[in-house]
Design brief:
CATH superfamily of the largest domain: Umud Fragment, subunit A
Number of domains: 2
Main location: membrane
Number of strands: 12
Keywords: Hydrolase, Membrane, Protease, Transmembrane, Transmembrane helix
Shape: elongated
GO cellular component, one term: membrane
Radius of gyration: 27 Å
Distance between the termini: 82 Å
Helix content: 10-25%
Catalytic activity: Cleavage of hydrophobic, N-terminal signal or leader sequences from secreted and periplasmic proteins
Order of helices and strands: HEEEEEEEEEHEEE
Subcellular location: Membrane
Largest sheet: 8 strands, antiparallel
Length: 199
C-alpha cells in the first residue's frame, strides 16, 4: 500500500471495522449465553438438580461429598415409593436439606423396636442396612401425604424417629444418579421388599 495515499478517513474506516467485528463477536457470545441459560435454567429449576452428601447418616450406601443428581420431575406424575432415597427440606429449618430413605407410606403404621422396623405389624427386611440400632424406638400412624424416613446409618441419623413424619410438601425429589467419585458412578434401583412391597 502506498502510505502517501493513506488518509485519516482510511484509518477511521479501519477502526470502525475493528469495532464492528468486536461488537458482532460480543453479541454472538451474549446470544450463546442467553440460549444456554434458556435451556439449562428450566432443567435446573424444574427437572434435576445437583446435591452433595454431607454427613454420615446414609453410610455405607452414600458417603460424605458424593455428588448426586436429584430427579425432581418424577414425583409430579408418580407416587413416592418405599425404598427410594430422597432429598427433603428439614421441617425445623427449611434452609437445610436432608438425604434419607422412604420407609413408611401414607396411611401405614410404622414402628421401630430394637432396631427393627415394622410396617402395619410386619417386619421390614432391609438389605441396605449394615447393622441395627437398638437405642431408638418410635411408633406413628402416617396421615395422608406423610412419609416416615430414616437414614441407612441408623446409629447416626436425624430422621423421622426424632423429626416425626415428613409431609410431601418438603420433599424435593429422589436420588437418581451418582456422578462422583468415579469408581461409584451409578443409577439407583429400588430395593425389593418381598413381604410388604414398595407401594
Amino acid at each position: 500500500m502506498d502510505m502517501s495515499n493513506f488518509s485519516e478517513d482510511d484509518e477511521d474506516g479501519l477502526v470502525f471495522s475493528w469495532f464492528k467485528k468486536l461488537a458482532i463477536l460480543f453479541f454472538e457470545i451474549v446470544k450463546v449465553v442467553v440460549i444456554s441459560l434458556a435451556i439449562i435454567l428450566p432443567i435446573r429449576l424444574f427437572l434435576v438438580q445437583p446435591f452433595y452428601v454431607e454427613g454420615a447418616s446414609m453410610e455405607p450406601n452414600f458417603y460424605q461429598n458424593e455428588y448426586l443428581i436429584i430427579d425432581e420431575i418424577s414425583y409430579r406424575f408418580n407416587e413416592k415409593q418405599r425404598g427410594e432415597v430422597i432429598i427433603f427440606k428439614n421441617p425445623q429449618n427449611t434452609k437445610a436439606y436432608f438425604i434419607k430413605r422412604i420407609i413408611g407410606l401414607p396411611g401405614e403404621t410404622v414402628s421401630v423396636e430394637n432396631g427393627k422396623v415394622f410396617i402395619n405389624g410386619e417386619v421390614l427386611d432391609e438389605p441396605y442396612i449394615s447393622h441395627l440400632s437398638s437405642d431408638n424406638h418410635a411408633s406413628v400412624i402416617l396421615a395422608d401425604e406423610e412419609y416416615f424416613v430414616m437414614g441407612d446409618n441408623r446409629t447416626n441419623s436425624l430422621d423421622s424417629r426424632q423429626l416425626g413424619p415428613i409431609n410431601k410438601s418438603y420433599i424435593i425429589g429422589r436420588v437418581w444418579f451418582r456422578g462422583w467419585p468415579v469408581n461409584r458412578i451409578n443409577t439407583f434401583n429400588l430395593p425389593s421388599y418381598e413381604n410388604i412391597g414398595n407401594k
